[in-house]
8-amino-7-oxononanoate synthase (Frankia torreyi), 437 residues
Amino acid sequence: MSQTFETLGRPLPPAPSAFSPAWRHVLDRPLGIRTELDRMRRQAPFYDATVDEIDGRRIRIGDHWLTDFASCNYLGLDLDREIIEAVPAYLDLWGTHPSWSRLIASPRPYDDIERMLAELLGAEDALLLPTITHIQHSVLPALVGRGALFVELHAHQTAHDGAAMVASRGGTVARFREDRLDRLDRLLRAAPHPRVICVDGVHSMTGNGPPLDELLPLARAHDALLYVDDAHGFGVVGERGPDESSPYGSRGNGIVRHLGAGYDNLVLVGGFSKAYSSLLAFVACPTEVKEYLKSAAGPYIFSGPSPVASLATGLVGLRVNERRGEALRARLHRLTSRFLDGLRGLGLGTLNTSGFPIVEIPLLDADNADPLGRFLYERGVFASVVPFPVVPRDQVGVRIQITAANTDDEIDHLLAVLGEAGDRFPLVAASGPPDPG
Ligand SMILES: Cc1ncc(COP(=O)(O)O)c(C=O)c1O
């Protein structure tokens, strides 16, 4: 029997007054713009959930089965038998965890992955750290120093946190908007060097890529570096060519190659925690910059490394990508197109103009976020309901992520549920006319 709204609500925590003054000083502080997020996290079944079981892209929470459309495992490698079965041999060879910080020593798979990555990306070199979060917090300040950082307003929160680190070390930080590059141009003229412009690659909410064709010439004209966080593009989109299996391009070597740009004055950051279903991240840069970062980026010196299982799934994942990546991307593209076509057929709109597998559907009234999320949950759809301030108020809505491990039936069920949801909680309409039939 599926759970109801009432049984899904979790008890609220004890009132802050039950805590000692030391804790009250912490807990009494207002959360400010994260108040709504906090409320939903505590009360909504689709947040902070404990998943008891998975079966393909079906997940069980308590006794309620849902289809997972909140997964970033775009290629479905989390469920890939070849990768799963390869892991124990690496554990036998290397134990569970190297435990040295990378400055002290790294097991051989690190070198292998960095070499394979550089070749895949077509970059001179690559440096691995555990997560993109580590990279944003350490590589951004290492690059900027006392110079100037320009962060796109809608870049991922980890980039804005990295910007705070830059500011704390004497760098200058300014925000800009991708659709107001004239302003960035003016800001760059007066900025101290080094100058770094930071943007998301494939955007985690809109699913669209950045205007590299405008940003790169601007960066080069001002002797600035362009730093691109392609967490969601790496593994999904890649270089274009006559043999590509889908419009996502080939090899999954990221948004820079997909848009036909090169790496001059460009730092590409990407991660394995999405398409590769692992815990590793990289900075693609010239070897000399890599050597500099080994001494300048804190996590290389002070943090624990990725576990061996992550090195194994990263390394074997890259090999699987070589052999089977095109088929997986073709399937991912086909499923995403089925969803986008169906959405248009329902007359519903999305921020996604790229066709990539992140599809956000805004609500007309942001106050409906919670009831919409509960409705989807009850109907067996597990998706991210994105509140303010994660997205601007006019973009509050539901984010659907498709993976190659989803099925046609799951997409059709999702569309049926969204059609019903749209009747109750008005969603943004498609800008063009709905597809006939
Ligand atoms: C755009 C973007 N950058 C960075 C991150 C953080 O990545 P990691 O898990 O490697 O720290 C995410 C994760 O959601 C993301 O969406």
Remarks:
- The longest strand covers residues 195-200.
- Residues 101 and 304 are 5 Å apart (CA to CA).
